[in-house]
């Protein structure tokens, strides 16, 4: 299970499928102290003349504290055979269980952050900017806020520069 670092320009990446349908694990911390969570919201693009990935995390998620604490995080992408592991990581809190023990995923260091040996692709990101989503920011009245939030807290967005891209060999 070795990885090769590639240039971002070498990556063929459909974010609508990879993030929205296949999901990603967003992970912050180091191999001795980290947490991961499943995410299906995010963007990849260019901002401030930098290649960026944006992810969204609610402040009540255990991973939130790790993302806040660290300068960087990873986004790990997996094949369909790991769907149940990603489902577990999205529905259980690291406060209450050992996600690695329960899923069999193996943490691996990537440029000082944590990704997973079972991933097909790991993107390392350095945080540049964050902001909180708010109800008053919605410009339409078509139910997005009610459908996605209700009484749940709004997400914090993290815009991060992509500093490393690793693919499984």
Descriptive notes:
The protein is α+β, with helices and mostly antiparallel strands and about 170 residues long. The chain has one domain (about 5-169): Electron Transport, Fmn-binding Protein, Chain A (Pnp Oxidase, Chain A, Roll). It has helices at about 15-20, 60-70, 85-90, 100-105, 145-150; strands spanning about 5, 25-30, 35-40, 40-45, 50-55, 70-75, 105-110, 115, 120-130, 155-169. Strands 1, 2, 3, 4, 5, 6, 9 and 10 form an 8-stranded antiparallel sheet that branches. The chain is globular. The relative contact order is 0.24.
Keywords for this entry:
18% helix; globular; 5 helices; alpha+beta; 169 residues
Just give the CATH class: Mainly Beta
Overall body shape: globular
C-alpha Rg (nearest Å): 16 Å
**The CATH topology is what?**
Pnp Oxidase, Chain A
CATH homologous superfamily annotation: Electron Transport, Fmn-binding Protein, Chain A
Question: How many separate structural domains?
Answer: 1
| Major β-sheet annotation | 8 strands, antiparallel
Question: Outline of this structure?
Answer:
The chain is of the alpha+beta class and 169 residues long. The chain has five helices and ten strands. It has helices at residues 15-18, 62-69, 83-91, 99-103, 144-148; strands at 3-6, 24-30, 33-39, 42-47, 50-57, 72-77, 107-110, 113-116, 121-132, 156-168.
């Amino acid at each position: 299970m070795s990885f090769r670092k590639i240039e971002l320009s070498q990556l063929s990446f459909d974010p609508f499928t990879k993030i929205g349908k296949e999901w990603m694990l967003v992970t912050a911390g180091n191999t001795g102290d980290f947490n991961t969570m499943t995410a299906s919201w995010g963007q990849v693009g260019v901002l401030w003349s930098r290649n960026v990935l944006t992810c969204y995390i609610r402040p009540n998620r255990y991973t939130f504290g790790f993302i806040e604490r660290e300068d960087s995080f990873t986004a790990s992408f997996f094949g369909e055979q790991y769907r149940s592991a990603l489902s577990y990581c999205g529905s259980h809190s690291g406060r209450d269980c050992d996600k690695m023990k329960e899923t069999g995923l193996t943490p691996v260091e990537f440029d000082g952050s944590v990704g997973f040996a079972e991933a097909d692709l790991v993107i390392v990101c350095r945080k540049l900017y964050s902001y909180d989503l708010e109800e008053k920011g919605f410009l339409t009245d078509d139910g997005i806020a009610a459908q996605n939030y209700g009484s749940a807290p709004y997400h914090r967005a993290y815009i991060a520069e992509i500093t490393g891209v690793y693919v499984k060999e």
